[in-house]
């Protein structure tokens, strides 16, 4: 059964280690992947214990430096591992994702190279949530930059993407991307991520369950409201751009068959209107790809120059009108949008 995620701004509790940690350690089972016999710290997470290297953790996280600086209680028994034992309030699988980056085993390296062509949402989410919680700034910056590269503020970069979400993600994961942007305060991710959420139908309300910790990812009430408002505005903007591009007002400057091309454009538009395919002439989401139109237009007797003219008209309208207004449409403020 899914549970709601803990507050996104929750911080790790810094406390002195207690004998209770040692007692719990006896009951927990050793992790099969991250139990190093020469490890210098034991971490408890749920019913799993990891034995890893404190130097790696303290190099990346000042929070671990502080936790390890706290004194052992005088009544604590000697550890069976002769190294510190610390209880973490994180899911074991979430930690494994991060450990595979910081302390890769051979099996993890092989898996990453040959099975995963791109990181999954669960992986990226774990990296960012753990890095934010434990102030692992380098790791946090790396994976926020990964999201910013796809959920970009630059129009040319966005239209160059083949998918609305990164490879390895499903569209529903845009909800999680919005929540990560809210967690970390990176507002430049929000306009495109919220715009993708407007295409989810009823799933936008239901959300999804993360694979690593079974927590439910849902939009806040405020972000749901932004998406409901943005959906209609985006459909209107997209329909306007499509109409301007397909309207048979003129042919391309280099067109040698103007009458034929104009008539074919008119026939194309009439056919689409009569097909009752509203998603075609009134598409959802942030700047739908022109390829969905160019593929069908190729079946009509329209010259290459006119096809290029229509694509240019579409991208120009979307770039100068829709894209520059995307933060306004999605109800967020972003400094330097489109620059």
Overview of this structure, please?
With 339 residues, this protein is of the alpha/beta class. It folds into two domains: 3-90, no CATH class; 151-339, no CATH class. 53% of the residues lie in helices and 8% in strands. It has helices at residues 19-27, 54-60, 62-69, 92-102, 106-114, 121-133, 137-150, 155-160, 174-184, 190-197, 203-206, 221-246, 258-274, 278-281, 291-297, 304-322, 326-330, and strands spanning 3-4, 29-35, 41-45, 48-52, 85-88, 208-209, 215-217. The strands form two sheets. The protein has a four-stranded mixed beta sheet with strand order 2-4-3-5, sandwiched between helices. The chain has a three-stranded mixed beta sheet with strand order 1-7-6. Helix 6 runs antiparallel to helix 7. The longest helix is centred in the last third of the chain and has 26 residues, at 221-246. The chain is elongated.
């Amino acid at each position: 059964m899914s549970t709601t995620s803990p507050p996104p701004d929750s911080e790790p509790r810094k406390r002195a280690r207690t004998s209770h940690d040692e007692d719990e350690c006896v009951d927990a089972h050793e992790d099969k992947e991250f139990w190093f016999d020469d490890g210098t710290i034991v971490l408890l997470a749920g019913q799993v214990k990891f034995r890893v290297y404190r130097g790696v953790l303290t190099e990346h996280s000042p929070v671990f430096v502080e936790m390890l600086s706290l004194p052992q209680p005088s009544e604590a028994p000697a550890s069976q591992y002769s190294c510190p034992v610390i209880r973490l309030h994180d899911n074991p699988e979430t930690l494994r994702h991060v450990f595979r980056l910081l302390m890769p085993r051979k099996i993890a390296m092989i898996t990453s190279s040959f099975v995963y062509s791109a990181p999954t949402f669960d992986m990226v989410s774990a990296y960012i949530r753990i890095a934010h919680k434990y102030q692992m700034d380098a790791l946090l910056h790396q994976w926020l930059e990964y999201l910013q590269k796809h959920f970009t503020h630059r129009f040319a970069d966005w239209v160059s993407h083949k998918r609305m979400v990164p490879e390895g993600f499903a569209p529903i994961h845009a909800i999680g991307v919005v929540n990560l942007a809210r967690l970390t305060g990176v507002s430049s991710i929000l306009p495109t991520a919220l715009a993708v959420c407007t295409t989810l139908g009823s799933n936008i309300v239901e959300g999804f369950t993360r694979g690593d910790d079974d927590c439910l990812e849902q939009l806040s009430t405020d972000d749901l409201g932004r998406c409901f408002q943005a959906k209609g505005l985006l459909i209107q903007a997209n329909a306007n751009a499509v109409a301007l591009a397909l309207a048979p007002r003129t042919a391309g400057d280099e067109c040698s068959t103007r009458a034929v091309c104009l008539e074919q454009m008119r026939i194309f538009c009439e056919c689409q209107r009569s097909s009752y395919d509203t998603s075609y002439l009134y598409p959802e989401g942030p700047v739908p790809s022109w390829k969905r139109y160019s593929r069908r237009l190729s079946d009509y007797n329209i010259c290459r120059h006119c096809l290029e003219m229509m694509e240019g008209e579409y991208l120009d309208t979307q770039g100068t009108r829709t894209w520059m207004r995307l933060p306004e449409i999605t109800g967020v403020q972003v400094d330097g949008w489109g620059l």
